[in-house]
Write a structure and sequence with these properties.
heterotrimer, A alpha+beta (about 500), B alpha/beta (about 325), C alpha+beta (about 775), A: about 500 residues, membrane (chain C), transmembrane helix (chain C), EC 2.4.99.18 (chain C), dolichyl-diphosphooligosaccharide-protein glycotransferase activity (chain C), metal ion binding (chain C)
Chain lengths: ~500, ~325, ~775
Amino acid sequence: MRLVRTFLSLLALVSTAVEGRSATGQRVLVIVEHAINRADYSQFWDSLQARGFELTFKGPKEETHQLVEYGERNFDHLIMMTPSTSSFADHLRPIRLLPTLLESGINTLFLSSPSQTDATSSLYREFDLEFSPSQTSLLTHNPLPGKSGSYVAFDLEDGLHGEVPLSVIPESVRQKGRSASSGVGRKMVVPEGLTHTPGSNPFLIPVLHAPPGTFTGDLPRLSSSDDSSEEDYDDDNERRTKNKLQQVIAGEEAGLVSVFQSRSNVRFGWVGSVGMVKDDVWTAETLNPEFISSLTSWIFQETGVVKVLSTEHYRIREAANGGAEDGTIKETRDRFKGYTVKEDVTYEIALAQHDPSSSSSSSLNASYVPFEIDDLQLDFTMLDPHIRTSIPFAGEVVTSSGIRAGLYRKTFQVPDRHGVFKFVVDWWRPGYSFVHESDTTSVVPFRHDEYPRFIRGAFPFYTGAGLVSGGFLVFCWLWMHLGVEGDKVGRGNGVEKEGKKTK
Amino acid sequence: MKFSLSSLAGLASLLLAASAQASTQDDFLAEANAAPNGIIKLDSASYERLVSSSPGSPRNYSVTVVLTALPEQFKCQPCHVFDPVYKTVGNSWKKASREERKDHFFGQLDFSDGQAVFAKLGLQSAPNLQYFAPKAGPRKSDSKQDFITYDFSRNGFGLEKLHNWQSNLAPHPFPIFTPFNPIPYIVIPTTIIGGIIGLYFASPYIVPFIQSKAIWQGACLVAILIFTSGHMWNRIRGAPYQNRDGSVFAQGFSQQNVIETQVVGGIYGLLAFSAVALASLAPKMLGSYRQRFAVYIWIGVMIFVFSYLVKVFKYKNGGYPFRLFLG
Amino acid sequence: MSTPIPPGPAGREVKLAYPIPKISKTTLINTSALLRFTILTVISAAAIASRLFAVVRHESIIHEFDPWFNYRASKVLVNEGFYEFWNWFDPTAWYPLGRVVGGTIYPGLMVTSGIIYNVLHYLNFPVDIRNVCVMLAPAFAGLTAWATYLFTCEMADESTGLLAAAFMGIVPGYISRSVAGSYDNEAIAIFLLMFTFYLWIRAAKTGSAFYSTLSAIFYGWMVAAWGGYVFITNMVPLHVFVLVLMGRFSNRIYTAYSSWYVIGTLASMQVPFVGFLPVRTSEHMAALGVFGLLQLVAFVGIVRRLVPDKQFQSLLKTFVVLAFTVALAVLVLLTTSGWIAPWTGRFYSLWDTGYAKIHIPIIASVSEHQPTAWPSFFFDLEMLIFLFPAGVFLCFRELRDEHLFIIIYAVLSSYFAGVMVRLMLVITPVVCVSAAMAFSTLLKTYMDPVVPSIDMDTDRDSVIIDEKGEKKTPRAYAEKVKASKPGIYGLDTRLAVLTPLVCSLVMFVYHCTWVTSNAYSSPSVVLASRNADGSPAVIDDFRSAYKWLRENTEEDAVIASWWDYGYQIAGFSNRTTLVDNSEYGVTHIATVGKIMATDEATAYPILRKHDVDYLLVIFGGLIGYSGDDINKFLWMVRISQGIWPDEIQEPNYFTPRGEYKMDASASPTMKNSLMYKMSYYRFPDLFGGGQAVDRVRQQVIPNTPIELNVIEEAFTSENWIVRIFAVKKEDDIGRGLPESTAFAKGTKLKKSKSAKVGGAKKKGSQKA
């Protein structure tokens, strides 16, 4: 009894530790299939609720509670605890589900189990994840006493993938996981984990893989097939023959947990075993609570969320009246009235990172903190980048919406080439929201009055013009005032003209 | 030990391939040197050998081959037109250094020697000019189709364009080499001078000719009639002389035959002359009867011919609603 | 056109074929003046009225393609002022290169309409700029009639002038490019052409610097308005040159030409698009050469006073020849050494007729650069075409300086008109003038009531039999014959000639009206057709499609279409286009050609790189609109082949038997090309299993469904003429677009793209 209490307190502690608010919303739809008893996972639900999520539980076949209605999403996140379900309600059928999730940005956590159906697997294949056939599971050579071989416990660092960003699994969790050998740390526990091999999809981040000494193999049927009836047994039998493994995978190939962030920053996560969030392993002895919590907090847009608050590009001009104290104003030019070639242009972009800890204030705005990095890059591109430069951090600003953000500013000279250009900032780092900003402007040639008035090269022309006109005047003067010849000629013309006229 | 052996074997095979490649290349180089204009005469077999390229031994030189049909019995006019041009280009390449020439060959495959190739490529017409980019080396191209065809329909048989095209594809641009030909240098000046002298002496006879109004008048009128009856269209579009069934007028508003334009030109001329006759000849007649006669004749001609013209035009342009006395 | 009674020789009363009322000379002059004025006004009115078919039928709408750009430019001019127009950089054209409009167009047209617009507004006529643009051409046509009148008056007399004006007013050859709504450079150019010529003739006749200056100024306007100004630039010097060769050099010519050339050249160089061309290109060298020649000749003229006349002639000739050869040599030298640019493509295609076809597919692809078959001559000029040589003949009869001009003009323009349909416009004025000369000579001859004083067929004393029994005319009679002036005798002959002439005039009017209303009055954005029951119907696909674009796409959407439709898309729907009708960047046009000509996989990167949001194709296969993109497709292929010869080859688009086909036998390259796919996407479905017949090419389209992966159909107009396709973005979760479309169609993946299959199952358990 006491144990329970202490455990509860611990749980409370844990939950406060990871307490936070999602950047996109708190409403979570949980689809739990009938085969799974919701109550067995109460701790998991509690931890989520403790973090401020409002959970709604539904069965896979219930048509009510659409994810999206009239283009408005009813839920911000989704937990699919439906490994063995093969037929879904219409709006949850993979072919409908995937577009819905992507279009309306619903983050999803998929939980699998060895009884996973092919329909589900083929949905996951769209994400370039290949799940092992059903009725297989991660097995270990030396099971814990009293546990079957499919109950795998290991140190986090043995299974943690090499390049998992800290934003997904923070240092604190790793810390807890580490020094497990010395007995202090806690182990990850994966009962009946269905493994998958992550593909080379750039959006995919493998998180956890099978530890050493484990491999994927047929699920031993001792526990569950005791009470199986006769025909059921045959069925098992033939399924067994059907799903015979052709090859065993282990180590990094055998992924247990992977996450995925789409081009439009929608996040997905796969946990290879429903068992990992079950109450019996959600204990202070295991690392699962911390691990899963940090995982979900990434998937549900609490951590690693970066957003662009504003971009601006302008040139400095002398203000006609007033302007800034130094008599200049910022002049922004759109794609119709562009910048002039070879002119200095400044581009600014403000980035902020979502801070889950500041859940105290109700407004989402206040939950952002300036985001500072040193590898942000700016392209000034028309078809191809004409200018590619790093754009340095230039201090903090408070945007009009009252958000504190990190400002990045770069001033450069636009190339001597007119056309429609784009300022492109592209920052892709795993574990963070992808930053892709593109502003269009145009670069126009000089106006007729912007060229230098007198140029050296043209002096031959100036002199030439001057000489000719001068010479012409002189000639006229000579013609009129000089000599009888001119007179004669003049009269000659006159006479001739008369002659023609009369003709 | 085993490993080293296998690797040795691999090495050897590679060497073999390379050497084989090199040997063919040298053979062809020798042939090219031997051949006049440096154009290798090919038959089906040697053609295949020249352009062959396997992943094992990729062709590291480029080839230009003309598939032509020179013998008389094929009556291939363009082949004969193109032949000297091609020879000139081949010859110009021959002036390049031996090392560079290893990298590009000019070949010529006549239909009489290479029906097989023609059949394989499904060519109905000659000449065809193909360029095979090298499959290895610095200039290697990784385009899917293994050769580029020179588009005669667009470029014609001109030397400049061919040389242009070729010297862009060759290992390095090379100038057109034309063997020195003294004839023009003698002929042209002599003709010019002779002409001038001739003109000078003939001037008493020519000058009045040039100055005569009648000549100019005639020339101008003829020119106008020719142009307005659509002669330039014939020149540019190469109109047929007449329809297959021998009839004069082509069907369709924007189609015409040569003879058709001649007829129309004649009609215009006749009408114009009748107008002139009525305007300036008839009044000069100082007898009421003959004048009356002439006037009736010419106005008759005018009306008749004009209505015929309208008829013809109606035939050309179906929707034309008007007609004169005829049809 | 009544002629005053001439007093007979030696005051004797003359014989008249028919009585004419006695009217005093002054009244006669006054009435004729009044008549001239009224007739001229009526002619102008007719000229304007006959150009309003399109406006009456549809609406006051801009026609064709180029006019749409001119209209846009004019809007910029009147809305944002002259300097903004002058420096106008259009970022929505040639995306993303943009187009510097100010320096790349002939601004004359826009400036003209801009001035008219502002004047009208100053006078408190709140006219919409569109209506100014639409009505500009007819208005100037009226002026052209007037200019023609003046020009012809210089050649012959007023009555001829009136006739010429009447011809010019309604002749289809000119109407073809000046109906209401065809707001193109030619609309004002022809007026400027005629007026410049008129002023030039005046100048050459009187030798007044005033007139030549005026003509130079109008020449400047012409330069600002139309590229065809080069015709004047060579026409006038040629006239002078011929005059000099004929020994007709005079100080009048000298004054006229010198001032014309100097002022005209300076004026022309003020147009940014022309700039230094007048001193750098060979088209302008003739003018310069003749200018120099005149100086030499004038110099000779001064020498003349020092040497006796006999030598002078020879001296002059030698000088002319010498100067000519020297000038030619210098010209050749400069051209070869590259100081003077050689002939530009357009004009080259005038001389070397084979040139354009081979070298410049873009020019060859434009229908306006095609040669002229004889029917279109007759179509545009009807009876004038054969009166034209007669008129030239009459010009030869009395060979005054201005007649030479007509002759040269006639010969040159008939050549040009023969080479290029578009230049039919240039020949039309001279045809009208000289035809009018012939016609009015006929009329005057046969209207003249005066009967010759003698008649050799009836006069007794015309023939006497002398002693040898031979007929011979007595000397006395011969004298009379000499004295008598030629004329027509019988009244019947007069009528016999006049009636057909008048009838032919009537027929001419009918012809012109018919041609105008049927051929030249359709604003190609609205197609007229007939329903099954023959009632007229309007096919309005273009406008509806452009409207759709304007209302359903983002402001900055980029639309890729073949260049013919660039201006209309910009003008109608105000969207950014990749290429348009200004032959500006061959590479860019070739890029669009490549997009259309290659398969989806190749085209997609190009589409994305150019930020293309929509593709627009014109497809006439359903209702048989022959001017659609598939018929232009080969040009796209050729043009892009010019840039990427190893990626795109024309032969690949033909069947093995070398036919250009769309049916089952079409080559795979053709079937995979975006153009083919976009045109025939869902086309067979319309026929519900029946044979899908393309009504333009009369071919059966195979009804194997066409798969589109990287684009999706966005809009198809009522008659399928305009089809618009939206370009898809990259897949959100990094799949290839074909895969994502497959998923949307419901096919499940059997294995993931790149993931290594962990424990692959036997086939048995794979349920699709």
